[in-house]
Amino acid sequence: MNSSFFADGLLNGRVAFVTGGGTGITGGVARALTEAGARVALVSRRAEHLEPAAALIREKGGEALAVPADVRDDAQIERAIAATVEAYGRIDVVVNGAAGNFLCPAEELSPNGFGTVVDIDLKGTFNVCRAAFAELKKNRGSILNISATLHYGGTPQQLHVSAAKAGVDALTRNLAVEWGAYGIRVNAIAPGPIEDTEGMKRLVPPEIKARLLRRIPLGRFGMIKDIEHCAVFICSDAASFINGAVIAVDGGHWLNNQ
Questions:
Q1: Number of other residues whose CB lies within 10 A of the CB of residue 124
Q2: What are phi and psi of 42, to 5 degrees?
């Protein structure tokens, strides 16, 4: 069980609103939060990703609500927030994990392609934070944004994602300062190369993967469970004085990649 490092019921009574929660890293985070005792609303544009993920959580004894919504549409997100509050009575934690990515050289990147990724990753994160603010303020809640390490240097064919995630980091720090006065903590996790993700399978050729591995000081790729463990900690009261942090969970890769 992913939450076996933590005390039973660490997040009992909490409700988490998780975008991109049907698959990948944030799908794992959503499951880990339920294993720690939280109830979750899984939010994604595609209902076909949400229902199986919610069903799996329920099979394991957790509580999960599937709420289809596009993070780029603030009206849809406001309705998803309202539906979550109607079902569970509150929202304590927001996890922003909805994201888009593809490989493309900058000289071939269209304005539409660039804008689409910024709309999902950055504007979508803002839309969700803004829509959830009133509930988070009531409950002195927390926000966890899923960022990246791509923009710590220069990453070929990832200009669009790098720009969007740099914006997510800035948003994280600014909201931490502004909303800390309401007791709302805002932090981010920046995953490095995570082996058991669709992105690693789809976007990283074998020769690049071997080069990446050589540059990870800990000598292995990360796994989704590594992000899950960090997420449960950051969303718990054990991290009650951590605010505005962007935590790289990458085995030291970015430090050794300069």
A1: 27
A2: -95, 125
Helices within 119-236 (DSSP H only): 124-139, 159-179, 198-203, 206-214, 224-235
pLDDT, tens digit (0-9, with 9 covering 90-100), for 157-190: 999 999 999 999 999 999 999 999 999 999 999 9
For residues 18 and 12, give the distance between their C-alpha atoms in angstroms, rounded to a whole number. Answer: 16
Share of the chain above pLDDT 90, in %: 87
Dihedral angle sign, alpha carbons of residues 223, 72, 126, 64? negative
Q: Are 194 and 222 in contact (CB under 8 A)?
A: yes
pTM: 0.95
SS3 of 208, please? helix
State how far the alpha carbon of 113 is from the alpha carbons of 2, 100, 164, 207, in Å: 36, 10, 12, 26
Tokens linked to 188: 């981010």
List the one residue out of 85, 45, 53 whose CA is nearest residue 69. Answer: 45
DSSP string, 58-103: HHTT--EEEEE--TT-HHHHHHHHHHHHHHHS---EEEE-------
- Rounded to whole angstroms, how far apart are CA atoms 147 and 194? 13
> 42: part of which helix (H) or strand (E)?
strand 39-44
- Token pair 């069980």: residue: 1
Beta carbons of 187 and 234 less than 8 angstroms apart:
yes
User: 17: part of which helix (H) or strand (E)?
Assistant: strand 15-19
Question: Structure tokens of 10?
Answer: 């660490």
